[in-house]
TrEMBL record:
It is a multi-pass membrane protein. One of its GO terms (biological process) is sporulation resulting in formation of a cellular spore. The chain crosses the membrane at residues 20-39, 83-106, 113-134, 140-160, 181-202. Pfam families: SpoIIM. This is Stage II sporulation protein M. One of its GO terms (cellular component) is plasma membrane. Component of the MPD complex composed of SpoIIM, SpoIIP and SpoIID.
């Protein structure tokens, strides 16, 4: 049975960068764990202040006093796209490689802190809220960050390798390399739009239902 060209290309892409994908995933996971640990290092006053603002936000969600879905979609999409776009640019710059690693770690830390704080302050109710407020968009967004990080690092390393090699030994032209790199960013942009749509339309409804359920 003949493999579909796109499927074969994706499989080959993952195989060639399997160790890099593993490294990026572990780095992101370390960020999540670190973010959850930070919650325990906060003092009582810091937790109370943050919980106060969080309670007000959840109250506004339950009353429907939040930004419109269109505004949330735009804000979420452009925020995430700028973050991912910066990673993409840093992959071209070569010297930005360490910054890409830091950005991946920080993204994981934010996710870990958010979930960790909700669970720490609200127990199982916090777990339910984090499940509906963080999970829907991050099911798509986290893979997007891992793919973008991996591809950006891989591209940066390829550029370094090609600069050190003689032109006669190049296996792929710089233009072809850049075209593929740009195509990946377009794919990541599409994933970001899907994630932002979930965050803008699905998360508020799920959050409102859970808040009403746990407040009974």
């Amino acid at each position: 049975m003949r493999k579909h060209p796109l499927k074969a290309m994706i499989i080959q892409h993952i195989k060639e960068r399997s160790s890099l994908y593993l490294f990026v995933f572990v780095l992101f996971l370390m960020g999540v764990i670190f973010g959850a640990v930070i919650v325990n290092s906060m003092n009582f006053t810091q937790k109370e202040d943050l919980y106060f603002y969080l309670s007000r936000f959840f109250g506004q969600v339950s009353e429907g006093k939040v930004a419109s879905s269109v505004e949330m979609l735009q804000q979420s999409f452009f925020h995430n796209l700028k973050y991912l776009g910066l990673m993409w640019v840093l992959g071209i710059s070569i010297i930005g490689l360490p910054v890409i690693l830091i950005m991946l770690f920080l993204k994981g830390m934010v996710v870990g802190f958010t979930v960790g704080f909700l669970v720490n302050q609200m127990g199982w109710q916090g777990f339910m809220l984090s499940f509906v407020s963080v999970l829907p968009q991050n099911i798509v967004l986290i893979p997007a960050f891992i793919i973008m990080g991996t591809v950006a690092i891989s591209f940066s390393l390829k550029i370094v390798k090609q600069l050190l090699m003689k032109k006669t030994n190049l296996t792929e032209s710089p233009f072809a390399l850049f075209t593929k790199y740009a195509a990946v960013f377009m794919f990541i942009s599409a994933l970001t739009m899907i994630a932002s749509t979930l965050e803008a339309y699905a998360s508020p409804i799920l959050m409102k239902n859970v808040i009403e359920l746990v407040s009974k």
